[in-house]
Amino acid sequence: MDWFDTILSPIMWVVAWIMVLAHKAFTFIGMDESGLSWVLSIVVLVIVIRIVLIPLFVRQIRASRAMQIVQPEIQKLQKKYKGKTDPASRQAMQQEMMAIYREAGTNPFASCLPILAQSPIFFALFRVLSSLDEIAAGTQSHIGPLTRELASQAEASTLLGAPLSSWFLMPDATAAVRIVAVILIVAMSVTTFTTQRQLTMKNMPAAALDNPMARQQKMLMYILPLVFAFSGVNFPIGVLIYWTTTNLWSMGQQFYVIRNMPAPGSEAERKYQERMARKAARKGTSSSSDAVTTGAGGTALLEDERPVSGQRQQPKSKARAKKSGAPRPLGTPSSTAPDGVASVPDDVTDAPPPVGTTDSSGRSDSSGSSGSGSVLEDEPPTPGKRTKRKR
């Protein structure tokens, strides 16, 4: 074990544990020990690592947004020191630039955190897969739970006939190895290009497309696929599976962020606002179908816009509610009367008992006045005594 393996040994141990546990889970449900289970174990490794890196990804998004916001100030600062190449001017520009970043709460290196965090994991997986044949042969000690028996199973597992530990440029590489390697390299390049294109073309404000940061993103959009093409031929099939899977995850994650949390002023934000407007319009159409009631003059009114009488409506007892012709207290407006206008009584209505008379309970009513009066709300008029309305 060299110094590089010594540094990576803790990460290699974690990688081996995740792969072995995933392999045991797949064999428990009936999959072959030396078949697709080890390929899926690498996919599970990607999923676990990317879930752990979600906080760093959120921080990367915030840093990228803040960098886009301060770009106009950075451009002004660059114009201010344009043509000044002396050390004092360059140092002053760097100090002012860092002050702008501090005020915005960002760091130009924060957007690189997910890539930097994945680099040790990538190399640890590379070392684990490269050591499978040595562990299986007994010339190297086990890595965590990856024993000699499990290493032999992993060494024998293949993807479309290509062993996981084989690579494109190996001396005895078969046609299956080269074909699978090319397919994975092309998939890596396409997913990387798509992710960078989404970030550059859809999630950048129009004013930021001409700044140096945008130009760097456009350059990476074409350079990274070439880097993958030239470097991928030297990596094992298992590492290419990891690389392709993590690129697919990045592409889907970036698509979700651009669609639901677009950068201010970008093309993605305009489309997001259009979707929200259509959604709000659909909700407004559905809310307009609420129940309506008819007011005075046949005007349709919403339920919460019914005319309200100036007098509080008293609750009716069950006995009175069952009688369709039950007498209505004087002064109660009809349900069809317009707001603020007293209802016209029926031809025959309940009149108050004369002053001095007694009700059915024998109590004297002295609250009336000659010719007119009102019945107490808790004392209904005497049954049987109905008078015609005075004209």
UniProtKB/TrEMBL annotation:
Residues 268-391 are annotated as: Disordered. Residues 356-374 have a biased composition (Low complexity). The chain crosses the membrane at residues 7-26, 38-58, 107-126, 175-194, 219-243. It comes from the Bacteria. Residues 38-258 form the Membrane insertase YidC/Oxa/ALB C-terminal domain. It is a multi-pass membrane protein. It is found in: Cell membrane; Membrane. GO terms for molecular function: membrane insertase activity. The keyword Heme does not apply. Residues 315-325 have a biased composition (Basic residues). Keywords: Cell membrane, Chaperone, Membrane, Protein transport, Transmembrane, Transmembrane helix, Transport. Residues 268-277 have a biased composition (Basic and acidic residues). One of its GO terms (cellular component) is plasma membrane. GO terms for biological process: protein insertion into membrane; protein transport. Its main location: membrane. Required for the insertion and/or proper folding and/or complex formation of integral membrane proteins into the membrane. Involved in integration of membrane proteins that insert both dependently and independently of the Sec translocase complex, as well as at least some lipoproteins. Aids folding of multispanning membrane proteins. PANTHER family: CYTOCHROME C OXIDASE ASSEMBLY PROTEIN COX18, MITOCHONDRIAL, OXA1. Interacts with the Sec translocase complex via SecD. Specifically interacts with transmembrane segments of nascent integral membrane proteins during membrane integration. Belongs to the OXA1/ALB3/YidC family. Type 1 subfamily. This is Membrane protein insertase YidC. It comes from Miniimonas arenae. The lineage of its organism: Bacteria, Bacillati, Actinomycetota, Actinomycetes, Micrococcales.
